[in-house]
Model the fold of this input.
Amino acid sequence: MTKLVPGIELTHRWSGQVIETPDGLPYIGDTAPHQFAGTGFSGNGLTFGTLSAMMAADRILGRSNPWRELFDTGRTKIRGGSWNYVRENKDYPYYMVRDRFAGAEARSLRSIKRGEGKILESNGEQVAASRNNDGSVTMVSAICTHMGCLVDWNEAERTWDCPCHGSRFTPKGAVIGGPAETPLSKAHR
Done:
């Protein structure tokens, strides 16, 4: 952007995640008592967001809805699911091997500028180190708690993202989005 518009100062960025379900249809409905969700719109939020609101209104008012079963949050798709699983996870072995042989991105904390994050090796451990805007440094394990891939720094969102299955973590290691359910552990200094 700065090449197109010289002198512009970027103060904010936008990013969104397109969530896809195994069968291509969103999940819309009850997820727990008193919880109604709509997700997995695959980039069709205007259409499915409106449909979710209609279904939520019917649920609240106790009316039946003709689409309830089609978009049920508890549905499973058996047929074709195995091939989708293989297709979605085909690059997992690549990342596991690459991560173990690629080495650290940086040698020392001094090489990490404010707002940046890099993978370092510290005492034989892969460490995800980031520097906050105030100059303080946060260090967590670089190993994703889902299936063990190394996370990468997402510069636009200032998060640690797993390239294998899409888990996302805050700079301090808290889970933002799964499939990981456990935060990144604190790094040993």
Notes: The CA atoms of residues 122 and 188 lie 8 Å apart. The mean pLDDT is 84. The chain has three helices and nine strands. Helices lie at 45-61, 81-89, 92-102.
